[in-house]
């Protein structure tokens, strides 16, 4: 475990520190310019990365939840076949998580088309940040729903009265993915509103400025 932690965390950190100190003491510190890298990199690359992370993490969370829940349903259904049909609602909750990730892609596509014609860093990185937020929330939501659905299946096999009680917990766990979807839509919508506000402000400034001022 010690060697694994060293090669995973310690070695990359040590290499980054060595490279940063070398650039600093050799007078090439300006080469390590994160802002310049972000400004010169393609906005389509960041937007596509955000959309890919959103869909990928959402599908990963949904698949993880279905795997955990399905294994428990099949295992408990061997002794209690009555639980197989009723506990399929947990599979549906897990599948909805993937739909959240696909839906945010439709909202990011119009903003991604306008990123090439703008110099605002907010417009460039909103698809990335929004997609990463939705993807991370859906990943955690899928795991939460999967573990809770697995517990609901095993509890239903032992005592049928416990199914509804644990299902309430599962419903509240599935709402976490909806919260992430709402936050991602708000981030993308704020970028579009900011672009519209900036356009209106520039038109108003042109109308106010006197034609005699050069």
From TrEMBL:
It holds the Pfam family ATP-synt_C. GO terms for cellular component: proton-transporting V-type ATPase, V0 domain; vacuolar membrane. Residues 50-102, 130-187 form the V-ATPase proteolipid subunit C-like domain. Keywords: Hydrogen ion transport, Ion transport, Membrane, Transmembrane, Transmembrane helix, Transport. Coiled coil: none annotated. The keyword Ion transport applies. It is a multi-pass membrane protein. V-ATPase is a heteromultimeric enzyme composed of a peripheral catalytic V1 complex (components A to H) attached to an integral membrane V0 proton pore complex (components: a, c, c', c'', d, e, f and VOA1). The decameric c-ring forms the proton-conducting pore, and is composed of eight proteolipid subunits c, one subunit c' and one subunit c''. Proton-conducting pore forming subunit of the V0 complex of vacuolar(H+)-ATPase (V-ATPase), a multisubunit enzyme composed of a peripheral complex (V1) that hydrolyzes ATP and a membrane integral complex (V0) that translocates protons. V-ATPase is responsible for acidifying and maintaining the pH of intracellular compartments. Belongs to the V-ATPase proteolipid subunit family. This is ATP synthase subunit C-domain-containing protein. It comes from Gymnopilus junonius (Spectacular rustgill mushroom). The lineage of its organism: Eukaryota, Fungi, Dikarya, Basidiomycota, Agaricomycotina.
């Amino acid at each position: 475990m010690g060697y694994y932690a060293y090669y995973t965390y310690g070695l990359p950190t040590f290499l980054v520190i060595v490279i940063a100190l070398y650039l600093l003491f050799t007078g090439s510190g300006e080469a390590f310019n994160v802002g310049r890298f972000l400004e010169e990199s393609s906005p389509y690359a960041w937007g596509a990365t955000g959309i890919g992370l959103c869909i990928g993490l959402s599908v990963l969370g949904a698949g993880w939840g279905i795997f955990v829940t399905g294994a428990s349903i099949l295992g408990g259904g061997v002794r209690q076949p009555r639980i197989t049909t009723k506990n399929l609602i947990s599979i549906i909750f897990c599948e909805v998580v993937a739909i959240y990730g696909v839906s945010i892609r439709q909202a990011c596509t119009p903003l991604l088309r306008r990123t090439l014609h703008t110099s605002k860093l907010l417009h460039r990185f909103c698809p990335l940040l929004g997609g990463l937020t939705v993807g991370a929330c859906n990943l955690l939501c899928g795991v939460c729903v999967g573990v809770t659905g697995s517990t609901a299946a095993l509890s239903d096999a032992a005592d049928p009265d416990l199914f509804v009680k644990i299902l309430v917990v599962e419903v509240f766990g599935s709402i976490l993915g909806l919260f992430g979807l709402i936050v991602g839509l708000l981030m993308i919508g704020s970028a579009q509103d900011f672009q519209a506000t900036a356009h209106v402000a520039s038109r108003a400034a042109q109308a106010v400025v006197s034609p005699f001022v050069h």
